[in-house]
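User: Sequence in, structure out. Go.
Assistant: Echoing your sequence, followed by the structure tokens.
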Amino acid sequence: MNISEDKKVILSAPTFRDDQKKGKKFTMKNKINFRIFERRLGDDYVLLVREHVVVASKLKIPEEFRPNIINVSKYPDIQELMIASDMLVTDYSSVMFDYMNTNKPVYFYCYDLDEYDDMRGFYFDLEKEAPGPIVKNTSNLCRTIAKEEKYWDVYGGKYKAFQNRFVPLDGPNRAEKVYKKFFKN
């Protein structure tokens, strides 16, 4: 994978859907419109698409989009992809919690928010607490990413609150802090 240093890297990591199955295997239909992504962001961004590990579908990226859209679903270590990326696009995936340790922007592409809520539900109010914008189509996703310089002004407080609530013990020197909290008391 050869990515130009002048382009920002977006990691797209959606979760599977319970209602998308063939037999016992989950499938996944990519919902990011590659043509819109290429037209709106292709000059400045590269999109790494990482399907959920349980998804058996074979993501097909047309040749015309491959310089800027790369299927990394078979890459063995998502943590390395998180470190290499400049931002995350996800939906309801638990990868959002792991990504909080990078202190990089998270965008929520929730094209099926109501259906997903009815199907699986949420442990918290995603619309109220999401540490980034929630968008429902590719055009709005691209428009929001293109305004990334405003991300921290708009979402910085929610981002920090999310980190404090869900990953307060993660980060530098955390093993020492956990040791002192649990074994020194």
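User: And one key feature?
Assistant: The beta strands are 8-12, 21-22, 25-26, 45-49, 69-71, 87-90, 106-109, 134-135.
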